[in-house]
Amino acid sequence: MLANTLTEDRSGSAYIKQSNQLLYTLLKMRVLGIETSCDETAAAVVEDGHRLLSNIVASSMDLHAQYGGVVPEIAARSHIEVILPVIHEALQTASCSWDDIDAIAVTYGAGLGGSLLIGVMTARTLAIAHDKPLYACNHVEGHVYANFLTDIGPTLSRRPEFISGSRAGGNGILKPVQNDESSYMLPEKQPKFPMLAIIVSGGHSQLVLFRNHFDYSLLGRTQDDAIGEAFDKVAKIIGLPYPGGPSVSKLAETGDPLAYKFPKAKMPGYDFSFSGLKTAVLRQAQAEIGESYDFPSIKLSERLSDAQKANIAASFQRVAVATIVDKAKQAFQEFNPTSVVIAGGVAANAELRRQLTEAIPLPIDYPDLKLCTDNGAMIATLGCFQIMHNQPAADPYKLVPDPNLSM
Ligand code: KG4
Ligand code: ZN
Description:
Layout: H1 2-8, H2 14-26, E1 30-35, E2 40-47, E3 51-59, H3 61-65, H4 72-93, E4 103-109, H5 113-130, E5 134-138, H6 139-145, E6 151-152, E7 157-158, E8 183-184, E9 195-200, E10 205-212, E11 215-221, H7 227-237, H8 244-252, H9 275-288, H10 300-303, H11 306-335, E12 339-343, H12 350-359, H13 369-372, H14 377-388
Bound molecules: 5'-O-[(R)-(carboxyoxy)(hydroxy)phosphoryl]adenosine and zinc ion.
5'-O-[(R)-(carboxyoxy)(hydroxy)phosphoryl]adenosine is lined by residues 38, 201-203, 228-229, 231-232, 243-246, 249, 344-346, 348-349, 373-374.
């Protein structure tokens, strides 16, 4: 009931802040995080903003794969079907009853309207029914907070090996990940401020400079497609399944990254652009089979050879990743951050990790792959920090989704 006490007392006085800090050191604070912004229904319990007690994700990705992308109505319907079992399992894995939960954190934007609505309405209902304070989280900010998880609860296990060589002083190449849902590779320490966050997901590509918790500036962002979206579109052109990122990067391993000279968009400041690159891939694929600009992209993959596809995947990936890394390096040189973190689904990309390791002279602790893509743990962690930094709780009778929420 710690968080209840805290929200009722949120008068901002120094005395209450001091007592809050004291309470945090004496008691454990557990937050249930709920995430439904796209096609993953996810719930997790995080303790004190750093200890992962559970992380359950149910994905409707298989249902969307046949359509080559997320179908919003199918995603929303799947959320309705599984959200309560997912939350139940998150509590059970964390060995928590509702009495052990201090607050609920939920993603309220950005994302698909129907998907967000299911998460928000579920969180509102549970907050009212179990008398818990409710915290509204920005999905993109949540991705950044996956980097603050450093510890593991008793039902999960810590993977000792490094998946990126950067921390071990290696070459940043990914090692094969154990297919064990309960095993996590976590950094030993939380990142320090000022912190440069490289946010690369299916819906967002942004560089954000955090001076402290909840005190940040957006340095730049994509002016058109997000990098993950570009991976997904290129995957369609070369006939790979949705989601495109993992399949393009897998195929790229066998291709020549210098086979094609795709253009890198020159954008002002820290902004990015990926639509020109995507079009260049389409034109190259059409040229490879001797067809003109109006040849339907959907039929290209039947006519491209395996070697051509692999070369396109590798050449595209090299330039897409370099687009992000060039700007990240520029921001690193200008702002001299103490730590650099990477967030969002594309953080799983091995070539991105390799190029960043070369470009940035700081050891970067990457989140476990299971914490890079959408999950409830990142939202629960952000919720913990909202409480610890006296951010206002949401009204459980009024919170509504904001599909276009920005940072
Ligand atoms: O963060 P996320 O799970 O969802 C959004 O908030 O968008 O990111 C999903 C995106 C998809 O576009 C997917 O293709 C991409 O992350 N992705 C990858 C990789 N794994 C996932 N992109 C490149 N390489 C990967 N290994
Ligand atoms: Zn995401």
